């Protein structure tokens, strides 16, 4: 792995950790800011909305800046944002600060994937994108459990101070290791063509699959800590280890999903969506029993990321003639789903259904995804459509 890619990975890891670690310290944050746990869940929804809406808008507004300057600016904004979150006096200020950081997050991943592709040979582009995306996965393996443990020992504000230090490291790494000129030399597609690709059924059905996948993942993951404490009855000190195992499953799932994408993308995707519906039903059934629950959570984490890989691969393949749009659609689509999932979970909890009901919401979403994926696959087969190869010259 080249040094510039390592620098981009560090920043991706930092952004991924700050997005997901909130689930591990959610009860402490809620108590510290004087709100209920379901209300604190809107810190997840707000962050996701910031990525989904603000990220692409910021990327468009800053397209005249050099890529290195923009990436450094986003890393500095992240660093300042973590310090501000650590000092947040109330829930409203914390929510607004999280949204501001999320805007930088959304812009970062769109720009970083384009830059990563421009740093390597054409036959290494898939691996370059995978390095950036793996920052999110590794953040679940290392960042989230570590941040949760820090929060349990020294308080949730300490978690954000550590994130601030990580932001400093990411900024310094990119300043030192990224070349002055970065990015792809290919001429970007025009805005009209970028928009027209949305009419392809493979794109909008994949975005629906993203939404369903995120409901299946974050409807439960947002509230995983109180679920493990109150339903499963785990000791608080064991929760970081369960999150670590979930992250290990997710890391293995990324590689599994990549291999299956290269083999038979849609049949593999449909099968995994069905398996995830079964897994969520199993989680509902075994949630009061610690050992089966932990095993089910590891499998669930692996399937979440195994499913995510072919969805992203499909979008990139069918937007090869409008790749800039694809780079913003992927984080936006996933995070709209995260916001929706966290909000639905909060609504269910506020309605009195309890933490144990959350996996059932995910199972229903996965069944919807199976139906959509099957319909899209049949439609694609009947139309004999093939993915575009490259962006045409303007």
Report on this structure.
By secondary structure, the chain is mainly α. The chain is built from 15 helices and no strands. The chain starts with a helix and ends in an 11-residue tail after the last helix. The model has no long low-confidence stretch (mean pLDDT 84). It comes from Rhizobium loti.
Question: Descriptors for this entry?
Answer:
single chain; mainly alpha; 15 helices; MFS_Efflux_Transporters; membrane
Share of residues in strands: under 5%
Gyration radius (Cα, Å) is 20 Å
**Tally of individual helices:** 15
State the share of residues found in helices, binned by percent: over 70%
Order of helices and strands: HHHHHHHHHHHHHHH
Characterize the biggest β-sheet.
Answer: none
GO cellular component, one term: plasma membrane
Pfam families: MFS_1
Organism: Rhizobium loti
GO molecular function, one term: transmembrane transporter activity
How are the SSEs placed, and which strands pair?
Layout: H1 3-24, H2 26-33, H3 37-40, H4 42-61, H5 67-86, H6 91-118, H7 125-154, H8 156-177, H9 191-196, H10 201-221, H11 224-232, H12 239-286, H13 290-318, H14 323-350, H15 358-383
GO molecular function, one term: transmembrane transporter activity
Pfam family, one: MFS_1
Main location: membrane
């Amino acid at each position: 792995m080249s040094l510039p890619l390592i620098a981009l990975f560090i920043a991706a890891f930092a952004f991924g950790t700050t997005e997901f670690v909130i689930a591990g310290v959610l009860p402490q944050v809620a108590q510290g800011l004087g709100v209920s746990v379901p209300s604190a869940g809107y810190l997840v929804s707000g962050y996701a909305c910031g990525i989904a809406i603000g990220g692409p808008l910021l990327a468009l507004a800053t397209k005249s800046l050099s890529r290195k300057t923009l990436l450094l600016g986003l890393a500095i904004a992240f660093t300042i944002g973590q310090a501000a979150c650590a000092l947040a006096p109330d829930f409203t200020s914390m929510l607004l600060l999280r949204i501001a950081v999320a805007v930088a997050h959304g812009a970062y991943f769109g720009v970083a994937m384009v830059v990563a592709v421009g740093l390597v040979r054409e036959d290494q582009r898939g691996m370059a994108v995978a390095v950036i995306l793996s920052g999110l996965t590794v953040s679940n393996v290392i960042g989230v459990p570590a941040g949760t443990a820090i929060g349990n020992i020294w308080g949730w504000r300490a978690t954000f101070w550590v994130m601030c230090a990580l932001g400093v490291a990411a900024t310094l790494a990119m300043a030192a290791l990224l070349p002055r000129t970065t990015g792809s030399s290919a001429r970007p597609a025009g805005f009209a063509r970028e928009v027209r690709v949305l009419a392809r059924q493979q794109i909008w059905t994949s975005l629906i699959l993203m939404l369903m996948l995120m409901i299946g993942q974050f409807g439960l993951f947002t509230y995983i800590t109180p679920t493990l404490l109150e339903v499963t009855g785990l000791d608080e000190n064991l929760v970081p280890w369960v999150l670590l195992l979930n992250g290990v499953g997710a890391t293995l799932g990324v590689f599994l999903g990549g291999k299956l994408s290269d083999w038979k993308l849609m049949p593999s995707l449909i099968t995994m969506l069905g398996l995830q519906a079964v897994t969520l039903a199993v989680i509902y059934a075994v949630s009061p029993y610690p050992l089966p629950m932990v095993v089910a959570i590891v499998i669930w984490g692996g399937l979440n990321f195994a499913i995510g890989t072919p969805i992203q691969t499909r979008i990139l393949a069918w937007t090869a003639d409008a790749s800039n749009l694809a780079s913003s659609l992927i984080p936006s689509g996933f995070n709209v789903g995260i916001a929706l999932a966290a909000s639905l979970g909060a609504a269910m909890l506020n309605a009195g259904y309890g933490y144990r009901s959350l996996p059932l919401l995910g199972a229903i979403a996965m069944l919807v995804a199976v139906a959509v994926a099957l319909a899209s696959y049949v439609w694609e087969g009947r139309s004999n459509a093939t993915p575009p190869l490259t962006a045409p010259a303007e």
